[in-house]
Amino acid sequence: MTAGPYKGLAPFEDSDFDALLFFGRERDRDVIVANLMAARLTVLYGPTGVGKSSILRAGVAHGLRRETGVGVVVFDSWTGDPIAGILEAAHAGQPFVEGLRGAAAEAGGDLYLVLDQFEEYFLYHEEDDGRGTLAWELPELLLRRDVRVNVLLATREDALARLDAFKGRIPNLFGNYLRLDYLDRAGGRAAIVGPVDRWNDLVEPAQPFTVEPGLVEAVLDETAAGKLDIGLAGRGTIEEPQGDARVEAPFLQLVMERLWDAERAAGSATLRLATLRELGGAEAIVRDHLQRALDSLDSAERDVAVSMFDHLVTPSGTKIAHRVSDLEEYAAVGRGELDPVLSTLGRERIVRAVDGAGGDGARYEIFHDVLAEPVLAWKAEHEARRRLDRQREESDKRHRKLLRALALSVVAFVVMAGVTVFALSQRSHARAQARVARARELAATAVSQLQVDPQQSLALGIDSARLKRTSEGEDVLRQALIAARERAILVCHGPVRAVAFSPSGRLVLTAGADGSARLWKQDGTLLRTLGRGRPLAAASFSPDGTLVLTSSADGTARIWRVATGEAIAILRHRGPVTSASFSRNGQLVVTTSEDGTARVWRAANGIPVRVLKLHGPVLTASLSNGGGVVVTVSSDRNGQNLRARLFALPSGRLMRKLPAQGVTVAAFSPNGRLIVTGGEDHTAAVWQVNSGRRLYLFADHQGGVTDALFGPGGRLVATTSSDGATRVRDVRTGVRVALMLGHVNAVNSASFSADGKFLVTTSTDGTARVWEAATGRLETVLRGHTDAVVAAAFSPGGRAVATASADGTARIWDPGTAPELRLLARARQPVRAASFSRDGRLVLTASDDGTARILSANGKPLHVLDHPDAVESATFSANGTLVLSDDVQRSLRIWRTQTGARVRTARDVSSGPLALSPDGRLLAVPEKTGAIGILTATTLTLEKELRRGRPFTIASFGPDGSLIATAGDDGAARIWQATGTLVRTLTGHTDALTDVSFSPDGRLLVTASRDHDGRIWDVATGRMTALLRGHFGPVFGARFSPDGRWVVTAGPTTAGLWQVANGHLLTYLRGHTEPLTSASFSPDGHQILTSSRDGTVRTYACQICGGINELLALAQRRLTALSRLLSPAERERYLPAMADG
Q1: Burial class (CB within 10 angstroms; exposed 0-12, middle 13-18, buried 19+) of 339
Q2: I need a surface site. Which of 372, 552, 575, 709 has the fewest CB within 10 A?
């Protein structure tokens, strides 16, 4: 029996004892069990740390087995062979499907297979495919109707989209899915009080244990989702718990376990609120859990822990398991030094052994997902502290030298003057070291703010760089410049409820609780304030942008002239106006009110057209495209029975009442033929206007529908929900095409871009998110608001997003939807390669249309170099006066750069891309035999051949010409002396190589492969120094920047920009629509050039590739533009880091 009724961070297990102590999830358990028993496949997802593993073991598996006697297998160990592991857990033999069928028969006919932590399957087996892999066998299992095995896949919410890998293989993959939310407050109470009551029943102590009611409420408040901020990124932006805020179960269990231990140690049988306060509250307890464990390590052991954590937790907070032998190598220590660290951290529940009991074959991982962020935070703090320690040691050494020098002055007073100068120098150096330490401390703080408020990170990064130019400061400036999307803060002096762009995109309209509507320029300049009075509910522009419509709690809506700010019409109701909107042609206005009416008016003069009387408060109404139909949403007199109704205009005749109950939103399709409704009953529906027939019912929401709208083309319909998700469906079929997950609280609204390609969503979590509408791919997270975001809109051109928030501001953002890669040139067929001349003034391309082309750097066509067939490659000569190009017919042609005139043609020379030595003397070409031929460039005579095993595809010379690297179909790169002697072979790729290139200093080599990866290698040792992993398809090119700090890769549709020092991805560059064929830098390193099978050549001005001085100047310009219109008080509130600086 355990020492108490609480589990801490340990998950509840499938045991009788744990099941007895498992409280608060009874309804969730029943729902999951019902779905698992009824459907062949159930997908369960939820946020990190929500408690999926506990409910699946102590709730679902144990309950099913106890109540029905059926066979249940829970599997979550993904580091090894999943097929073998599942069969072993099920006590089944091979092959997979037949083995499980046999296990089901032994279990009495039915087997329930629960695959937990399924996101880790993709971490370790993303490339698995073919018979014998889970990617093959799981679909086979589910397609076999004669096999009575039902499957549940449980995954983290942020990894749900990874299941798309099974989409083409498992029909109706998402046909039955459930979202497990954080514990509700009632469940949290049960999880606190229930285990104590059960403990009293089981143990029968002399004095029964009790829990103070005040403690229960305090723990629920302090462990509310989003309340605890214990890591680098925080966990949301909600600072005060709401009355119905949900609870993070792992933290609740950890806090209660600590309180139990403290009370037992004090001899108390009551869990008290005072003890919680003495311990510092929930946040202090959670922080202390990690800190106590790490403080028990000595300094050297903490350094080992840092090296381990580097590999056990990714920068984004994902945990990864590694073998002990791998951790030894990563930490560069022996087993004797590693084992005590693993033992201590294991005992304190910071790490745990998986796939074994801790022996040589065991893998270790972080004990729980919720520890990932605190571990990252501790690691950053420890590294900063170590740097400070080193600086102090250096300062102490200098101080001791100073003391020795002063001691010598007793013997040699004559040198006192020199000693004094030395002392002053040392004091100056100490001050400089203090500045370095402070700069690094600011940089570390800036990193911690990146996922909370990138603008604050930018300000802190500037402060750090001003103190001292450090590598840490440079890195954080670069990251903050990428993450900081905010372009203007519009201060509105009260919660903002509506925001809109004018049709021209030049103006922004806001409306808020202070009773004012305001007109702004996009840069944040306030142009005009429209009225003051009671809180406004809505505001919008007319379709031609000349008028503004506002609705107010004072019982009026007003029409304003944009040019002058005058009110041209006051539209009166007998109660607060709840909504107001223009018709699509701008001729009519419809308003709704709590007075039980919707009213239609002429927009030009405010003359009433029709009054539509309903039976209770009207929430909203909108006009169809032609203005001939009005849809209203209203309740009865008691605020109940929400329904949508259709009225004909101008007669006002009630056409029909839609049968859906609890409707809160309704919207027309662009052509006015359809309506989408959504409501409190967790459903949305699409209806025909003319017939009232329901076409589709969408019943997969896990919470109330908060918004519903059609895309601009009418082909997509989006719904948002209080369950934190947004769903997009194809109107023609009703099939869901995208599920957008990531918000950690209710989604309040959504808005499409004008072209329908993107969708912006707003949430109570304080963020807005921009998505690709048709796929659900997350484009950008807009962070910076300090309270709920309630509305958002794209500018007409899609280059800006405006958001409205309860924090009293509206903000303008760069949504990150514009392609980073600018079109330079277009060919009729795929372009195989593109490169700059050595002076950067020209661009050379090779295309399947049978041409090489010389362009100016700004894209102006200069010369077309014709070939009889597709051009394989083209390169400038060493002095730039000539161009060499070859085609698929093995014809090589030489041209004059200045005139485009052909100088020479040679046949049967090359079967692939050309490589010229730096001095222009040698030419390396792939031969049809698979060897690399080394030719004299002037005569094209063969000097030697490089041959080894399978064919080579490309070669590259080192910067001094003494080494040659080759890339092979066998996945290996080889380094040769120019004499033809093989130096070493670099292995690690799992598919054919597509490119190879030396760094400018010749010390490193980068390779690209069809295995989706790039790799960086140490030329001298052959050791891989960085893995460039992030593309989802073959990588066809990789090149270093001229300063050797960056690598650009040519992936499927995007170029990747990577840091050479650590292999971290800086950003993806989009713009191409088909796979890239090459990517490279300009000679000055400020431009990136790409080519693609889509027939285009594109460039990217890489501002973030510069050094710290360039980054600092860019960051200062960005923040100056953001803050220039704010008062000192506003700057203090909305950009405190900048105000402090």
Answers
A1: middle
A2: 575
Placement of tokens 């822990």 in the chain? 305
What are the tokens at 146? 């004669």
Check residues 1101 and 377 and name the one with the higher pLDDT.
1101
Q: Which two tokens stand for residue 616?
A: 């209770």
952-957 and 963-968 beta bridge pairing: antiparallel
| Alpha carbons 732 and 110: distance in angstroms, whole number | 38
The secondary structure of residue 369, as a DSSP letter, is G
Q: Positive or negative CA dihedral for 22, 25, 26, 32?
A: negative
Residue reference for tokens 């030009």: 604
- Neighbouring CB atoms inside 10 A of 1090's CB total 26
**pLDDT tens digits along 521-547:** 999 999 999 987 789 999 999 999 999
Average pLDDT, the chain: 86
- Over residues 219-232, the pLDDT tens digits come to 998 888 766 554 43
User: What SS3 state is found at 483?
Assistant: helix
* 241 pLDDT higher than 50: no
CA separation for the pair 470, 463 (Å, rounded): 12
Torsion angle of alpha carbons 1112, 1117, 1121, 1122, nearest 10°?
Answer: -10
Name the 3-class secondary structure at 1074: coil
Distance, in Å, from the CA atom of 178 to the CA atom of 701, rounded to the nearest integer, reads 9
Give the whole-angstrom CA distance, residue 627 versus residue 629: 6
Place of tokens 């103006």: 507
Distance CA 505, CA 508 (A): 8
Q: Note if the bond before 250 is cis, omega within 30 degrees.
A: no
* Closest to 603 in 3D by CA, of 572, 560, 556, 565: 560
For residue 362, the model assigns a pLDDT of: 64
Percent of the chain that is helix, strand, coil (3-state, to 5): 30, 35, 40
Q: How many CB atoms lie within 10 A of CB 1101?
A: 12
What pLDDT does 810 receive? 96
CB 851 within 8 A of CB 861: no
CA atoms within 13 A on the CB side of 310: 18
Would you say the C-alpha torsion 519, 524, 527, 533 has a positive or negative sign? positive
Q: Tell me the pLDDT tens digit for each residue of 157-204.
A: 877 878 888 877 887 788 888 889 888 889 999 999 999 999 988 877
Buried b / exposed e across 822-860, counting CB within 10 Å, b at 16+?
eebbebeebbbbbbbbeebebbbbbbbbbbbbbbebeee
Of residues 117, 116, 126, 153, the one with CA closest to residue 41: 153
Residue 239 φ then ψ, to 5°: -100, -30
The token duo for 1125 is 């219109």
How far, rounded to the nearest angstrom, does the alpha carbon of residue 516 sit from its chain's CA centroid? 36
Residue 941 buriedness (CB in 10 A; 0-12 / 13-18 / 19+): exposed
What is the Cα 708 distance to its own chain's centre? 25
- Length of the chain, in residues: 1141
- Residue 231: per-residue pLDDT: 47
Tokens describing residue 500:
């809109």
Say how far apart CA 252 and CA 218 lie, in whole Å: 11
The model carries a pTM of 0.64
How do residues 602-611 score in pLDDT, each as one tens digit? Answer: 999 999 999 9
DSSP H/E element including 298: none
**Calpha distance 960→425 (Å, rounded):** 43
Spatial strand order in the sheet of 643-648: 618-623, 629-634, 643-648, 654-657
**DSSP letters of 626-686?**
TSSEEEEEE--TTS-S-EEEEEETTT--EEEE---SSEEEEEE-TTSSEEEEEETTS-EEE
Distance CA 855, CA 827 (A): 12
